[in-house]
Design a protein that fits this description.
alpha+beta; 2 domains; three-stranded antiparallel β-sheet; four-stranded antiparallel β-sheet; single chain; Immunoglobulin-like
């Protein structure tokens, strides 16, 4: 009996990336302590927009609010932070460390429709939520369409010209 397996062309790239990461980590780490405690990572971010706000949700579990810096400068939102490695357990007792530690920086170019002065940031349940209010002129405006009014205006304009 033949078994069909769905071919994923990117599976090999993922495996190659893991091998390359392991090669560089093993080659350039000076000691076991450093490889456990230092790492650069980028937390996952969701960005969505509605008619009033542009909102970013950034995953920051295990990061203290005092270790997060949010700035808007020249229409660029920058979030800096650091997840510190907890020294409660001796590092040699770890069998596997998958959580990433170290500092991160994420930057986002903001659209011109955002009012940077009305930005807010809240952190709860491991998620940093940044709300960027839109400027009043950027909000959509609804225009009422009158059916047949253009013909009425043309008829009135033709009567005045005669």
């Amino acid at each position: 009996m033949t078994v069909l397996t769905r071919w994923d062309p990117f599976r090999e790239f993922s495996t190659l990336q893991d091998r390359m990461n392991r090669l560089f980590r093993d080659s350039y780490s000076e000691g076991r302590d450093e490889s456990l405690t230092t790492s650069n990572f980028a937390p996952a971010v969701d960005v969505y927009e509605d008619e009033h706000n542009v909102t970013l949700k950034i995953e920051v579990p295990g990061i203290d609010e005092k270790d997060i810096d949010v700035r808007i400068e020249n229409n660029v939102l920058t979030v800096d932070g650091e997840r510190k490695f907890e020294k409660e357990e001796k590092e040699e007792n770890y069998r596997r460390v998958e959580r990433q530690y170290g500092s991160f920086t994420r930057s986002f170019t903001l659209p011109n429709t955002v009012d940077a002065d009305r930005a807010t940031a809240n952190c709860g349940k491991g998620v940093l939520k940044i709300s960027l209010a839109k400027k009043a002129e950027a909000k959509p405006k609804q225009i009422k369409v009158n059916v047949g009014s253009e013909k009425t205006l043309e008829a009135k304009g033709a009567g005045k010209a005669a």
